[in-house]
Amino acid sequence: MPEPLTFPADFLWGAATSAYQIEGAVREDGRTPSIWDTFSHTPGKTAGGDTGDVAVEHYHRYRDDVALMADLGLNAYRFSVSWSRVQPTGRGPAVQRGLDFYRRLVDELLAKGIKPALTLYHWDLPQDLEDAGGWPARETAYRFAEYAGFVAEALGDRVESWITLNEPWCSAFLGYGSGVHAPGRTDPAAALQAAHHLNLAHGLGTQALRAALPARARVAVSLNSSVVRAVSDSPADQDARRRIDNLANGVFHGPMLHGAYPADLLDDTARITDWSFVQDGDLAAAHQPLDALGLNYYTPALVSAAQNDPDSPRADGHGASDHSPWPAADDVAFHQTPGDRTEMGWTIDPTGLHDLIMRYTREAPGLPLYITENGAAYDDKPDADGRVHDPERIAYLHGHLAAVRRAITDGADVRGYYLWSLMDNFEWSYGYSKRFGAVYVDYETQARVPKSSAHWYAGVAAAGELPEKSVVG
Ligand code: FCB
């Protein structure tokens, strides 16, 4: 019997982006630098010295971009707000011109019947807050809660779906551990401290949102919870798996979903920190009731108990570094999962997405789940007719959507899927060299060309159903 590939009638078919990756206009309307402006302008930090200065000019082209989404029949769009536009130094009153941009964007979406999902923080901390200590400093969590309140007051009448943080693992462990992301620090103890303050920020931010938002609003967080597998069942390899799972997942879902850090995480990291930065009441604050959980998934991790293999791309997430993003885990090796890979070098394995959804179905019973990011980079190029054919991306999306559908059959409450990404954009330390978009962007002219995957995805969204074959003619 073929599996049923029809999705629930009210399923959200979306696409996702983030502010620094698409907006450009970095010096307009009162915006001041974020850590990503500083980092990308630091020689050697991004491929080709690429920056988000111009990006894909979404700040000025947002109307056309929303029209494109409407043409593709999307009914949801996940974007992030640039803190540096709304509260440039991370302190003081909100800047109306900054908020007005997001108001216009949301109005445009609503007018086209597209549900906005607003992420407050997708990695772009105001530089002034980094200068004052960044995420390893407790004060940053309080600053975030204030900023969350400003955005909620301005947009709470029109946005129902709110996400506090995007992938706090990357903010903490790539930003302060391996240093491949802004602000580029390489201090494992600071990375754990950053993780704690991100948990606190999520909790305080959620409280600030609840205080300002109408009761119908829904609050969530998007985690890049890793699917961590071991190369064998040996106790040593299983222990390596357990440790990385705690550093990837438990460090965030522990406080956020259960109000506690896993005890073994504290033991495993005791030689680099005593966790004395955790104050009374912090874990209760981080543990707020949520309305949904966002899961971002690209590829699983495969580990063993041995020295790390520096060639393994996922060991360092979004880029290579001499410093590990995994505190106190130098004796864990990361391996390439067998199988075909995307342009990022990430192995294509939809079973990981199914495993992830089922894990959080158990970890957070009753909490609706959204896949808030999933997608693939390929070296897309227009053909002689100017069309962009990306059959590999269609196959990737097909496989992963089928995994989502299978999880629903298995009892998971998945309510929506946001493809990463709507359009090609600034891929962090890889600059513009990696194209994740369903829509191709010509960076010279800023022309947008929907790839064949965009047309395919539009068809799936319109039918609410996955075709049996992944390839369109
Ligand atoms: C995720 C990020 C997103 C993009 C994709 C490829 O980790 O949230 O901004 O970089 O990876």
Query: Which structural class fits the helix and strand makeup?
Result: alpha/beta
Strand percentage lies at 5-15%
Distance between the termini: 26 Å
Radius of gyration, CA atoms, in whole angstroms: 21 Å
Mean pLDDT: 95
CATH homology group: Glycosidases
Instruction: Please tally the β strands and state the result.
Output: 13
User: Which second-level CATH architecture applies?
Assistant: Alpha-Beta Barrel
H/E order of the elements?
EHHHEHHEHHEHHEEHHHEEEHEHEEEH
Oligomer state equals single chain
Strand neighbour order, sheet with most strands: 1-2-3-4-5-7-10-11
Low-confidence residue ranges: none
State the name of the first-level CATH class.
Answer: Alpha Beta
Structurally, the number of domains stands at: 1
Q: What's the story with the biggest beta sheet?
A: 8 strands, parallel, barrel
Give the SSE layout.
Elements lengths: L11 E5 L2 H4 L12 H6 L17 H14 L4 E5 L2 H4 L9 H16 L3 E7 L5 H5 L7 H17 L5 E6 L1 H11 L9 H25 L5 E6 L4 E3 L4 H24 L4 H6 L13 H5 L6 E4 L4 E5 L26 E4 L14 H14 L5 E5 L17 H19 L4 E7 L18 E3 L6 E3 L1 H12 L10
Parallel strand pairs: 1-2, 1-11, 2-3, 3-4, 4-5, 5-7, 6-8, 7-10, 10-11
Antiparallel strand pairs: 8-9, 12-13
Helix pairs in contact: 3-5, 7-9, 8-9, 9-10, 13-14, 14-15
The structure holds beta-D-fucopyranose.
The site of beta-D-fucopyranose has 11 residues, from loops.
